[in-house]
């Protein structure tokens, strides 16, 4: 029976492919290699790792993680937040800054994932829902909506940027694109309380289709990631747009990992739902956001995070912790020199199960 299960697993991996059949060779290779590596490893990621950190910003080839263990994270998180909602000059500057961050990471052999804290395109209030300001934008920007052309123009800007992220070898950097995350909460304007299931699915499908088919963006891997509000497979899939529209399934979970409580059993159970779905559907799985602000728990890395990641049967391509603010004395999620969790983080780094940028070898080649 064990041999049969292993054979089935290998067949599923060999058959799995990106939803973009014309994806670049490097994007297809990244997808396959992440799938293969998830059998025995997990890549460690950090949001905005090389753009800024605890007390610094815009320093070449620096990250707080590298300052602690000698390697950048394997996965670098960026954000398309500045790609709309600002002056043309500010948007241009944001795109150029993120382009450099992405191409630098690609040239080093690292992996890039992009979140999108998308400023409300039809009202004030930013990306958060503000009762006195925000409008439920989803119904306005989907096909047939009054602001659909506005949304297409924003996507065109993303598409132009996607065509610009070329490494030193002339190839386009693959990006794991994670739009409309944590959609099962109400804190963002695209959240569950502000749009119907049908409209959310329409938005997702149009976004992928327009980027991939109309704008010819072929270096994106599309990641679907709710927060941790689901308890069953059915609840996770409630707003799932369909297998032909998703490359990666994930979960954001801070609450069970120490922010609200330490409930590692629940965190592991929910990740197992995600992992099992991915294996069944030929998708990647990831722990797309987590962390403990200020990391006051001196053994959080091995006693909490690693313990969850090593849950039997779990296959995750990466785990990403949130950012280190450059000014706040308390808003950080990865250690920096002198931070109390550094000794434990070094144990986390040394564990053969975890991979950092230095550990990645030709991840963009099959």
Automatic annotation (TrEMBL):
Substrate binds at residues 117, 187, 254. InterPro entries: GH, GH26_dom, Glyco_hydro_26, MANB/E. GO terms for cellular component: extracellular region. Keywords: Carbohydrate metabolism, Glycosidase, Hydrolase, Secreted. The keyword Cytoplasm does not apply. GO terms for molecular function: mannan endo-1,4-beta-mannosidase activity. The active site is at residues 182, 289. GO terms for biological process: substituted mannan metabolic process. The record marks 181 as: Plays an important role in maintaining the position of the catalytic nucleophile. Gene3D superfamilies: Glycosidases. Belongs to the glycosyl hydrolase 26 family. This is Mannan endo-1,4-beta-mannosidase. It comes from Chitinophaga niabensis.
């Amino acid at each position: 029976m064990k041999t049969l299960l292993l054979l089935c697993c290998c067949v599923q991996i060999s058959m799995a492919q990106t939803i973009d059949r014309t994806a670049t060779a490097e994007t297809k290779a990244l997808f396959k290699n992440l799938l293969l590596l998830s059998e025995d490893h997990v890549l460690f990621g950090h949001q905005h790792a090389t753009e800024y950190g605890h007390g610094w910003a815009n320093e070449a080839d620096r990250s707080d993680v590298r300052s602690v263990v000698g390697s950048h994270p394997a996965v670098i998180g960026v954000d398309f937040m500045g790609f709309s909602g600002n002056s043309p000059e500010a948007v241009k500057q944001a795109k150029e800054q993120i382009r450099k961050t992405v191409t630098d990471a690609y040239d080093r052999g690292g992996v890039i994932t992009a979140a999108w804290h998308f400023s409300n395109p039809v009202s004030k209030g930013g990306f958060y829902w503000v009762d006195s300001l925000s409008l439920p934008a989803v119904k306005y920007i989907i096909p047939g909506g009054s602001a659909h052309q506005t949304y297409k123009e924003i996507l065109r800007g993303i598409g132009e940027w996607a065509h610009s992220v070329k490494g030193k070898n002339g190839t386009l950097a693959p990006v794991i694109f994670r739009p409309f995350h944590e959609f099962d909460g109400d804190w963002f304007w695209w959240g569950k309380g502000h749009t119907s299931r049908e409209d959310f699915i329409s938005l997702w499908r149009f976004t992928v289709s327009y980027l991939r088919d109309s704008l010819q963006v072929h270096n994106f891997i599309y990641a679907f990631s709710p927060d941790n509000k689901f308890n069953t497979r059915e609840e996770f899939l409630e707003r799932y747009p369909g297998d032909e529209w998703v490359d990666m399934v994930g979960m954001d979970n801070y609450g069970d990992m120490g922010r609200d409580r330490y409930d590692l059993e629940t965190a592991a159970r929910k990740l197992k739902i995600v992992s099992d779905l991915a294996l069944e559907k030929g998708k990647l799985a990831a722990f797309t956001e987590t962390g403990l602000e200020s990391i006051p728990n001196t053994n959080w890395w091995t006693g909490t995070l690693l313990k969850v990641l090593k849950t039997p049967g779990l296959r995750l391509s990466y785990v990403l912790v949130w950012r280190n603010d450059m000014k706040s004395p308390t808003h950080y999620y990865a250690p920096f020199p002198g931070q109390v969790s550094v000794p434990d983080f070094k144990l986390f780094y040394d564990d053969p199960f975890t991979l950092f940028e230095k550990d990645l070898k030709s991840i963009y080649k099959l």
